[in-house]
Amino acid sequence: RPSRVAVVVKTTRYEFEQQRYRYAGLSEEDLKQLLALKGSNYAGLLERHRIHTKNVEHIVDSLRNEGIEVRLVKRREYNEETVRWADAVISAGGDGTMLLAASKVFDKFKPVIGVNTDPERSEGHLCLPVRYTHSFPEALQKLYRGEFRWQWRQRIRLYLEGTGINPTPVDLHEQQLSQEQHSRAHINERFQDQRSDISGPHLLPVRALNEVFIGESLSSRYAMCSVLFRENFKSCKPSFKFSLHRASYYEISVDDGPWEKQKSSGLNVCTGTGSKAWSYNINKVANQAVEEILKIAKKHGSLNMPLNMELVQKVTNDYNESLLYSPEEPKMFFSIREPIVNRVFSSSRQRGFSSKVCVRSRCWDACMVVDGGTSFEFNDGAIASIMIDTEDALCTVLLEE
Amino acid sequence: RPSRVAVVVKTTRYEFEQQRYRYAGLSEEDLKQLLALKGSNYAGLLERHRIHTKNVEHIVDSLRNEGIEVRLVKRREYNEETVRWADAVISAGGDGTMLLAASKVFDKFKPVIGVNTDPERSEGHLCLPVRYTHSFPEALQKLYRGEFRWQWRQRIRLYLEGTGINPTPVDLHEQQLSQEQHSRAHINERFQDQRSDISGPHLLPVRALNEVFIGESLSSRYAMCSVLFRENFKSCKPSFKFSLHRASYYEISVDDGPWEKQKSSGLNVCTGTGSKAWSYNINKVANQAVEEILKIAKKHGSLNMPLNMELVQKVTNDYNESLLYSPEEPKMFFSIREPIVNRVFSSSRQRGFSSKVCVRSRCWDACMVVDGGTSFEFNDGAIASIMIDTEDALCTVLLEE
What distance in Å separates the CA atoms of residue A125 and residue A132, rounded to the nearest whole number? Predict the structure, then answer.
C-alpha cells in the first residue's frame, strides 16, 4: 500500500506543437494557422489532448480517493528526487512515457506501472490492459488484494571506454525543442579548456528497457560541439541528424568471441521487453518472403508438400514468434540492421541471443541511443560493453484482463 | 569525341573536416587536435585525400593530352551552366559523386561517366572498372574506338501535390556544414508573408538514379521553419534529424490500386540501378534466416531433403538475386522498411515491382529524399506520385574489364 505515488504524464502532440511554436513567439492563433498550413488537424490534436487529460484526472482522483499522496510530473520535472520521494511510479501516456518513467528508477523494488491514456490510438505493450484506463480503481483494488503478479523486466547496462569518449547523456526530447546556437566565439572560448580523453570503463547512468541502438548520425555540428563542449554538454544542444542510410562502421564481439569488422545501418541490442518492439520490426519476415523462399526450395526439389498459404502462414508465424522472448529472461538479442556485405566487410552472424556484446566504434559521428530517448556520442576509438545485470531489473506488475 | 568535359570532384573526408572546423574558426593545428580527440587518424585522412587527388590529376591530364577542354568542379560549383557547357561529365570520386554528377544532367544524350578515385576503399558500382582509374588513357582510347556499350540507366521522377507542400529542394550535404540560425524576430518577420498552399502537381526538379526514400524526421525546427520560410527555403537551413525508429504514417497506392494505410520506418522506391544499393540491404535475407525458415518448414513435414548448408546457400542466393534487376528496365521496386503491423495498420504487400507508386503523407516532419542527397519536406496533406519516364534515362557507358 503505497502512501506516495508519482504520476509521470505524457506531453501530448498538442502540447508539443504549442511549446515549439511558442519558442518562435507565436500565438495560439498562429499555431492553428501553422498546423493548417502543414495540413494537420488542430481540432483533432486538441481532442486527443482532452481525452488524455481526462484519463490522467481519473487516475489521480482514484489514487487520492485511496488517501494516496500524488505528485503529477511532466517529462521535464521528472527527476531522481521525485523517484526517491515516491513509493511507486505510474506512467500516464503510452509506451514512450513508460520508458521515460522507468529510465530514472534504479531501485529494483520500486514498482513502475504504465497506464495507457489514449488506448484508441496507441498500443501500450508496456501498460496495464486497456480496460483499467477507464476503471483504475478496480486495478488499485486488485493490487491491494494481491490479485496480480510481480514482473521483473530485465534491463541492459552499458559501459563506455576508450579514447575521445563522453559519458554525458543527451535527452533527445528536450533537445528537439532547443533553439540555442553556439557562436564561433563561444566555440573557441570553450576550446581552450579541453580535458584529457583516455578514460573508462564508465558505467553509463541509464538502463535500457527496450533496446540500445548504435548508428551513424549525419550531424557535423553535433560531432564538433560534442568534442568542444565536454564539461557542459547539455548547454551545447547539439542537433541530431540521423542518416537515412549512411553506413556505420564498427567492430563487434559477441560473448567475448573474436572481433569482427562490420558495416551496416546500425546495430540493435534488445531485451525480452524490446524483442516485441523495434527489434521485432527489424527481424520479422513477411508471408511474401517466406513464400518466395519456400518456392525456391521447392524448385531445388526439396519440398514435397504443395505450397499452400496455410503452410506459408504457419512457417511465417513460427519464425516470427521465435524472435520474441520473456521480459524476465536475463539475455539480450542483437541484430545487425541492413548489413552491408562486400569484399571488405563480412557479416557471419547477423542476429542472435547473447549475454554480452562489445562494440568498437569506427564511426565518425555516431551515437548510442537508449530506448530512443537518451543518446551518447560513440565515435572512432570508443568501446561499448553491453550486458544484462539482474540487479538492474525493473519492478512492474501483471494484471490479467 | 567530346571537346569539353566537366570533371565533378568528390569532397574528401579530409576536406570536409577542414571545412566544418573552419566554420568554427579553427586552425589546421586545432583540426589535428580535434580529430585526435575523436580518435580519428589525421595522417590517414590526409593519405586518402592525396591518393584521390593524384587520381583526379591523372584523369585531367589524360583528357587534356587528348586536346579536351576540362573544367574541374567541386560539389558547390557544379551547376546547370557547367552541364550545358560540357559535352560529357566525368565524376571523380565514388558512387556518391556519380549520383551528384548525374543529379544535374537532364539531357538523355549527355554521357555521365564515373571514375572511382579510391578503389581500395570504396566499391564504386556506378563507376568504370577499377583498372581504368590508373590507366584512364586506355579507357579514352576504347571510347574513341567505340569499344564500349551505351547504357541508359532509368531514373525516377516525382510529382508533388496537395496542401502545405513545398517543392523547394534542400541539399543535405550543403546543409551539413551550415551554422546559420534563425532568430525569433527572423521567424516572425517571415511569418507575415505566407503564400497560399493548395497546389500541385509539381514535377520536382530532380531525378532519382538510385532511389527515393520517404520517412519521418525528428526535427521540430525543420518542420517549423520549412513552413515559415517558403519563399527562400535555402536561407533557412533547417536541421534534419532523422529518427532512429520513429514510425512514419502514410497511405500508399501501388499501380493505381486501392489506398492502404501503413506505418513503418519508411518507404524505399528504387530503380534497377538502386536495386543493388540500399534497397538490396533492406530486402536481402541472411543464410541464418533461410536456414531457420527451412528448418521450420521441415518440422511441418514439408521438406524431404536433408537440410545442408549447400541448399541453404543456394536458396539464399536465388532469393537475393531475385531482388536485382537491370538498370535499363523501366520499372521500380518498392519496399516498406520495418513495417509495423497491428490492429490499425495492415501491410499486405511489403515489397514488389511497380510502374507507379503514390504516397499520401500522414507524417509530421517527414522528408522525401532523392539518392540520399536532395530532400523535400513531405508532411500530412502532401501526395507524391513516383514513376519512371524513359525520357529521364541517364546516358552512361559500359566498358568491360
Answer: 14
